[in-house]
Design the sequence.
């Protein structure tokens, strides 16, 4: 049975097996079984034959002229054969098998349960020295990072430490072809608790933050998309609190706002998450950074949709406990007008955030700090807010009215 292959070169095998449609049609089942068995190294098949079989399978899967070919192969046991090929000792066999697997993406939903059996071999492949194999393997893992089950398998088999190791180089020395897919896999793995634990253990965020300094636009996109998600988790904010040297990368976000208008929503969302930590808030919001931040918010308010405005107002409500922020807000006519007008907005979440911010900046404010706000209709807007909003809004409204009544000018 196997002597058929031992006597032929790779070219002859290819010609014999796929040389004509008649050959494939008449000997379909036998041909597939021969190919699949050749990928089983336990059958002691010569390496040249294994490589030729893997190459043929790859070409059959990628046959655009016959879309049914891949599905036929899958029904005949292709996935099991490819998993064996991924564990072959020859890199050429691994390359052909991982290439074939990647070509099956369009069938990933239908055959997903079978495909996740390849996760462990894929993780093992990341340790090989062939960059092309690693890149294709990352593409396959990215394709499979869909469900809690697959993410748990990845976390349990040590994928996270391997992926995070790709980030611990100087930005100029990073291999972006590897970092980019690895970063997007890690982004999806944030949904898994065990994967997040591994990310904390391996200091993922400390290796990832410096990527903001790169000029590669695709890496920048990954960076902003990732930090928006990462800092929603307390464990990463806590980790950053003990590594204050990383604050320079957070400040870099603000420094680049004018050059990154396509990432404005990401920047707003990121800062909203970051300022939940008082330690980060204190170390990031110096006078220089605040000035740039408020300049950015001024521009952002001109173009933002309602959700973006809410994110900014939530951030202002959080940072308005800082004296420097209070001073800045009380001197900014535009931002004060925005907050006061916001009290009368129909969106309760938006108006409540405006009320919280005004409460924070007016409470215990000195009379001489209020010259600007005295010229604005804050009393009228506060009364409208008190009368037209929900129960939580009424509580904030009463607090705001009480603070205003303690200020002689407004009390009159």
Sequence:
């Amino acid at each position: 049975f196997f002597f058929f292959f031992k006597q032929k070169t790779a070219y002859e095998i290819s010609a014999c097996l796929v040389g004509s449609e008649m050959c494939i049609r008449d000997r379909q089942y036998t041909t597939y079984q021969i190919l699949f068995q050749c990928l089983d190294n336990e059958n002691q098949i010569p390496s040249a034959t294994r490589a030729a079989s893997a190459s043929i399978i790859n070409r059959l899967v990628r046959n655009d002229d016959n879309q049914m070919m891949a599905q036929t192969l899958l029904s005949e046991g292709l996935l099991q054969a490819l998993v064996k090929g991924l564990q072959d000792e020859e890199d050429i066999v691994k390359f052909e098998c991982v290439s074939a697997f990647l070509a099956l993406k369009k069938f990933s939903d239908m055959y997903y349960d079978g495909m996740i059996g390849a996760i462990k071999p894929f993780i093992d492949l990341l340790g090989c020295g062939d960059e092309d194999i690693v890149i294709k393997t990352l593409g396959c893992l990215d394709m499979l990072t869909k469900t809690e089950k697959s993410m748990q398998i990845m976390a349990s088999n040590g994928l996270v430490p391997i992926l995070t190791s790709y980030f611990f180089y100087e930005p100029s020395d990073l291999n972006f072809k590897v970092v980019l897919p690895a970063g997007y896999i890690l982004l999806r793995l944030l949904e898994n608790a065990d994967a997040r634990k591994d990310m904390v253990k391996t200091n993922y965020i400390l290796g990832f933050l410096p990527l903001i300094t790169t000029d590669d636009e695709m890496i920048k996109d990954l960076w902003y998309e990732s930090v928006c998600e990462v800092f929603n988790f307390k464990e990463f904010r806590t980790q950053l609190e003990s590594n204050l040297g990383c604050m320079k990368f957070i400040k870099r976000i603000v420094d680049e706002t004018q050059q990154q208008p396509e990432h404005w929503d990401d920047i707003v969302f990121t800062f909203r998450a970051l300022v939940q930590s008082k330690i980060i808030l204190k170390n990031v919001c110096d006078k220089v950074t605040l000035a740039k931040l408020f300049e950015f918010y001024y521009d952002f308010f001109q173009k933002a949709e309602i959700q973006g405005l809410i994110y900014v107002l939530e951030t202002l409500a959080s940072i308005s406990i800082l004296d420097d922020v209070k001073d800045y807000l009380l001197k900014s006519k535009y931002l004060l007008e925005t907050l006061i007008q916001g009290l009368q907005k129909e969106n309760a979440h938006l108006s409540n955030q405006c009320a919280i911010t005004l409460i924070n900046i007016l409470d215990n404010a000195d009379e001489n700090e209020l010259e600007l706000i005295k010229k604005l209709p804050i009393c009228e807007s506060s009364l409208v807010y008190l009368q037209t909003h929900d129960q939580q809004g009424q509580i904030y409204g009463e607090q705001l009215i009480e603070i205003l009544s303690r200020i002689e000018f407004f009390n009159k």
